[in-house]
């Protein structure tokens, strides 16, 4: 990838401040910039409205400055953690937004599967690499994944976050953690009832998620895998599948 | 306090590994050492079985070595984060246990209200200071609290964790955060249906806790208090009021 930064960012939604519901920043107030478009199609994707091109009419092509002004408006000008999510935000030109926000004391976390590497990863404050396990139906390109780490130059705080649906996913998570022993690991029980992209606040099997959470906690403990954190999607427990919270 | 270390630790229960359900270590596998006895009587205490002297017959006076051997047994000899909780664990002689565990690569987090300062606080890896807000019925002795920080010598990772039931508690949390601007803050919606000390797995108002969680997230966002993390007691959502998980 070159460092060319086209003017426009494809945006699905910008909302917040609300708390980050997952992973290393769980509980932290953040403004989400969710970009449109993804090079993956995970079977249990919970953000299809930002992934499936059927919904691309809802996406807006925005300039870096327009995205920035919306972040400032939502945060009332108070520096906040900005979470760049998607879809896969790595396929958007976000380097300029990060630079702009840093000038004002904002911080930036990126959530990506690690399939597309960008030189601006090195400007991030937090890099959440979320390789997709077998149940997603995707296959991990570990060379692309390694390129993400290489281009980040060790600057952002970097972690692995892996969704786990079943035993095969758990084995995948174990292998990924072994491959990157220096990276903190966050395991996340899969939400197996993701919202359909055209329905806000769809029903959700909370008890099923909690059951998977308990299974995962027990499994990691039995394996003496005592470094990985196990965290559910807190926003799903608090707000269900509702969007924009 | 002197550095005299009496032989016996008053223990209410030792269990795990399970995940830490609260605060900075949320999601991390840990073995809990819950000590018996407390200098506080919080109105909504969720561990009365480790606080009220009515239950002291269930507490065991154990040597440091016996406590250590139980931690080793539960963790299968794999180094794990040990959480020292209570009651108020600061009134127990825990310095020797911390030294013993450190020799084997274990780490130690202490949860205390900050009413009793010990020189061994400086040996901790994580110090969670949890001053009690007005709804607890307790009054904070800030001089004792400052002594905890002083004796920790800035060595452990130190955070504030504050339970919030209502507006008055929120104002207290705001003031405490302003008093210690260098300490990360974790806000925790109060579990207003704590388990009675003699009943395992008592009913619990999950929806009420989630309602308070949503209120707290909104309130912090409206106030542009964007550095404090807001986290519920995850173990209560996952396992209810059940003990030993």
From TrEMBL, chains A, B:
Pathway: Purine metabolism; 7-cyano-7-deazaguanine biosynthesis. The keyword Flavoprotein does not apply. GO terms for molecular function: 4 iron, 4 sulfur cluster binding; carbon-nitrogen lyase activity; magnesium ion binding; S-adenosyl-L-methionine binding. Keywords: 4Fe-4S, Iron, Iron-sulfur, Lyase, Magnesium, Metal-binding, Queuosine biosynthesis, S-adenosyl-L-methionine. PROSITE patterns: RADICAL_SAM (PS51918). Substrate binds at residues 19-21, 34, 85. It holds the Pfam family Radical_SAM. It is an enzyme of class 4 (lyase). InterPro entries: 7-CO-7-deazaguanine_synth-like, Aldolase_TIM, Deazaguanine_synth, rSAM, rSAM_sf. This is 7-carboxy-7-deazaguanine synthase. It comes from Sinorhizobium saheli.
